[in-house]
Design goal:
The complex is a heterotrimer of chains A (about 100), B (about 240) and C (about 550). By secondary structure, chain A is mostly helical. In chain A, helix 1 packs antiparallel against helix 2. The N and C termini of chain A lie far apart (about 55 Å). Chain B is mainly α. Chain B has a single domain, classed as Up-down Bundle (Four Helix Bundle (Hemerythrin (Met), subunit A)), CATH 1.20.120.80. Chain B is built from 6 helices and no strands. Chain B is elongated and about 75 Å long. Chain C is mostly helical. Classes of the chains: A mainly alpha (about 100), B mainly alpha (about 240), C mainly alpha (about 550). The interface between B and C is large, with 46 and 57 residues.
């Protein structure tokens, strides 16, 4: 159900655009992994992954056009607590002698 | 349109008509109206996905810590899993996410053939993913990289550090996390396939209309989430240190 | 005491609408599911209590003479696991929450009634697995099942216990999901967020914790089970694993879990305090937001359980500071409840007696948590009876008191009967006395050095006096807990039929019949009044007597 569906062809254009962006991102990730970027290999890979995940969430899962603010709040809350788990645990591991 | 199957009320449930209403049979009686039912179902799936984020999050936490501690050993172990198959699987899942949004759009615009075709394609792609995963697991079994009694990871060089070899115990931690994380992901895929089979059968019987297609939408949300988890698993597990 | 004459209830309600075992086992009525839970959790309360009794009997004497060391390890483990996972975490949300949340917001049922029934079945399956585990030897890892003991060294069947907890955890997650969606989506017209009873705010906050915390312990159990079965090395130091990682993942859930146990109780206290002071809760918004704050802050403090485990001291500093912060919203609530009493018209019915007990005992328990949050003090009292006393003050003096108060307060609504007030007040007094006699000596014991989880303290026989006091208190407490069970059951047949609103309390649930019909409301209510409108309820022109007895 989409409270405000635009003209029937424009969501399709968007879906295919996102689809190609995702495939492109995958190719880019693989290519970047074969380069020696020093300490930036991991951030680049994770950065591209985050862009891909964001595209899926915003456009395939309709978060961008969500009529309910609550949907966005649930997504943000989940990410917040995930980062909390990862981040606060790392305060221990990063500061051990 | 084919007649829809009426949900039979359980004994002593609230699903009992006690006043006459002209409404669609899909409306459950404890809801005030269809909009409320739709909003509740959608919110319910989103909240469930939030719990799944935390479920996988615990594993990501463990993974990140050990990767930080044993980078070289993890890199060596990562090199031994098949990047081409992993990348292919990533593409397969991305295609399946596309077929899912096409299915939702088809339901919203009363395109029955596209709907059924997209749902079937999604399942096919999901099975492809699992098939490729099966091949990868079999490879690991053959190479004795499955953690446990028969695990062996001797004399594997650490990438970028000539002369150094990976510590087998630390490599075993990598593989333990690899199997638990991809295994749980695969389990979620299997559940997703079950959900989409149900959606496919319901769509075949004409259950979904532009006014009522919430199950497809929320099934789609679940599928996209499983895709997102893989989007992160692929670079983390397969691409630790792949440059020559 | 009047002659007991059985007085059947004539009107159709959710209890007598349909008879037969299957009408209960396949019900989707939230009220019937609440009663199914009530029976189940009471059963597990007895089991957990039985283990507590054996523990206290062993500790009567310094020597380890009642049971062997391994058995004692199993006793405190099973006591903890059953009480935490099968009593405290489900209790209030699954019983009172299930029963009241839809009614308090003006809904016919929860958002997902069949998932609600599934929650109960998952709880039962987990419970049966835990019972089977107990009957086949039990587990001796402590309820905290730390690695590497649970993964490598214990000879007991931990995997079964772990899976039982996993299944019960899934039940908890689904209950939380149901509540969040219900509260967001099914409020009656006019029931805005600022008109919600604080009981609802408390359950909303609790549900957030259940949803976001439980999955982490679920995946931790998966890892422990996998490690135990396959010797993976994730937590085994000999293979490069870190036992502290287990503790981080475990406590990430288990600390917020204690807020799952206390927040619903706080919600009950707000309702009781308002009704029996005949006043709106002082600082409603502060109490509501404090519930959310407790839920969020509760996720920031878990490593205070690990101060002496070998974690980084800099991280310990951070967690210590955060642990001080988490006490603030709880303190805000205590101040607000106290302020509610000021210039209120106080009635000393049994629910209020439990609420008073809660107020004092929760405060003591909470303040002693601050002692533990201080790194310097924690080094000395951690893993002693000081900690045991601290958490029992909150769990038993706080959560269980609130639960009993709530059961008494809503009993007329649930059963359509009045319980005998005299006996109830006596029971409340016995519980209060028994509780303090059991657990206050444990603060002293911990402070003077008695370690927890020890079955033999013959190296320090001077601990015995306080231990004897504690065991004596436990017996009194047991009597106090048995009494309500007896008179509640008695009242179901012989109690005076209750009116719709015997307390003249505020809240939509009191506008339903006692007991309610299956659909709760004849027609959907439209809310035009604020929460806790006691001034209107007590205004001279109303027909009802302020406190009906």
């Amino acid at each position: 159900m989409s409270g405000h569906s635009s003209a029937s062809s424009s969501p399709l254009k968007m879906y295919f655009a996102v689809f190609f962006a995702l495939l492109l991102g995958t190719g880019l990730t693989v290519f970047a992994a074969t380069l020696d970027l020093g300490p930036f290999n991991a951030p680049v890979a994770l950065g591209i992954a985050t862009v891909k995940a964001t595209l899926v969430a915003l456009f395939f899962m309709h978060v961008w056009h969500a009529s309910e603010k609550l949907t966005k709040l649930v997504v943000i809350a989940a990410l917040f607590f995930l980062l909390l788990l990862l981040g606060l645990t790392m305060t221990d591991y990063a500061t051990r002698p | 349109m084919l007649p829809t199957r009426r949900r039979s009320p359980l004994p002593d449930s609230t699903v009992v008509l006690h006043h006459e209403e002209q409404h669609r049979p899909e409306l459950l009686h404890h809801f005030a109206d269809e909009q409320q039912q739709r909003d509740a179902s959608s919110l319910g799936m989103w909240v469930f996905l939030a719990t799944e984020v935390m479920f996988f999050g615990g594993l990501f936490c463990a993974y990140l810590i050990y990767r930080h501690w044993y980078f070289g050993d993890f890199a060596a172990a990562s090199k031994s899993i098949n990047m081409a198959l992993g990348a292919t699987n990533t593409a397969v899942l991305i295609c399946s996410s596309l077929t899912v949004v096409l299915a939702v759009w088809a339901a919203q615009t009363a395109r029955r053939t596209l709907l059924i075709g997209s749902l079937a394609m999604t399942m096919l792609l999901g099975l492809t993913f699992l098939g490729i995963k099966g091949i990868e697991y079999r490879d690991k079994f053959v190479e004795h990289h499955i953690p446990g009694a028969s695990f062996s990871f001797e004399n594997e060089p650490i990438p970028g550090h000539t002369g150094q070899y990976a510590n087998p115990s630390h490599a075993q931690i990598f593989f333990s996390l690899y199997f638990v994380m991809t295994g749980l992901h695969a389990l979620h895929m299997i559940i997703g396939l079950g959900i989409f089979l149900w959606l496919f059968l319901a769509a075949w019987r004409g259950r979904f209309t532009p006014e009522y297609n919430t199950p497809i939408e929320i099934g789609g949300l679940y599928w996209h989430f499983v895709d997102i988890v893989w989007i992160y698993l692929f670079p983390l597990l397969y691409l630790i240190d792949r440059h020559p | 005491m009047e002659i007991a004459i059985p007085q059947p209830l004539e009107r159709e309600n959710y209890l007598n609408k349909r008879y037969g075992v299957w009408s209960w086992l396949l019900t989707t009525d939230h009220k019937r599911i609440a009663l199914l839970y009530l029976i189940s959790i009471t059963f597990f309360f007895f089991i957990g209590g039985f283990f507590a009794l054996l523990i206290r009997l062993e500790l009567l004497t310094p020597a380890g003479d009642l049971v062997q060391a391994d058995t004692y390890n199993k006793l405190f483990t099973m006591h903890g696991m059953v009480m935490v996972f099968f009593f405290l975490i489900p209790s209030i949300p699954a019983v009172l929450g299930n029963f009241l949340v839809p009614m308090m917001i003006g809904a016919k049922d929860l958002a997902f009634p069949r998932i609600n029934l599934l929650s109960w079945y998952l709880y039962i399956i987990g419970g049966v697995m835990m019972l089977h585990c107990m009957l086949t030897g039990g587990v001796d890892t402590g309820w905290t099942f730390y690695a590497p003991f649970s993964t490598n060294f214990t000879n007991t069947n931990f995997i079964e216990a772990g899976l039982a907890i996993f299944v019960a955890g899934f039940s908890s997650i689904l209950t939380g999901l149901n509540f969040v969606v219900t509260i967001h989506r099914m409020r009656a017209p006019g029931m805005t967020w600022s008109r919600l009873p604080l009981f609802i705010w408390a359950h909303y906050a609790t549900s957030i914790i259940q949803l976001l915390g439980t999955p982490v312990i679920a995946v931790t159990i998966v890892l422990v089970a996998a490690e135990r079965a396959l010797h993976l090395g994730i937590f085994d130091p000999k293979l490069g694993g870190d036992p502290l990682l287990f503790q981080h993942l475990f406590w990430f859930y288990s600390h917020p879990a204690v807020y799952i146990m206390i927040l619903p109780s706080m919600g009950i206290i707000s309702e009781i305090m308002a009704c029996f002071s005949r006043k709106r809760i002082f600082g409603y918004s502060f109490v509501a937001f404090s519930s959310i704050a407790i839920a969020v802050f509760g996720f920031l403090v878990w490593a205070h359980h690990m101060f002496v485990a070998g974690m980084s001291v800099y991280a310990a500093l951070v967690f210590s500071l955060l642990s001080y912060a988490v006490a603030v919203p709880s303190a805000i609530k205590v101040f607000n409840w106290t302020a509610t009493l000021y210039k209120g018209s106080i009635h000393y019915d049994a629910p209020m007696l439990y609420a008073f007990g809660f107020l004092g005992l929760f405060t003591i328990g909470g303040l002693t948590g601050l002692f533990l949050a201080a790194l310097g003090i924690d080094v000395h009292v951690t893993d002693t009876y000081f900690v045991v006393a601290h958490f029992h003050y909150i769990m038993v003096g706080g959560a269980v008191m609130g639960y009993l108060g709530g059961m008494h307060f809503w009993w007329p609504k649930i059963s359509g009967r009045l319980y005998p007030e005299g006996w109830a007040r006596l029971a409340a007094l016995i519980v209060f006395i028994g509780f303090n006699l059991t657990f206050f000596p444990q603060f002293l014991l911990g402070y003077i050095g008695m370690p927890r989880r020890y079955y033999d303290y013959s190296h320090m026989p001077e601990f015995q006096v306080l231990n004897v006091l504690s065991t004596a208190g436990a017996t009194v407490l047991g009597v106090g807990y048995l009494l309500p069970m007896v008179y509640f059951l008695w009242s179901m047949r012989y109690g005076k039929p209750a009116s719709d609103n015997p307390w003249n309390a505020a809240g939509l649930e009191w506008k339903t019949a006692s007991p309610p019909t299956t659909f709760n409301f004849e027609e959907e209510p439209i809310v035009t009044w604020e929460a806790y409108n006691y001034e209107e309820l007590d205004a001279p022109h109303t027909q009802e007597v302020p406190v009906a007895r």
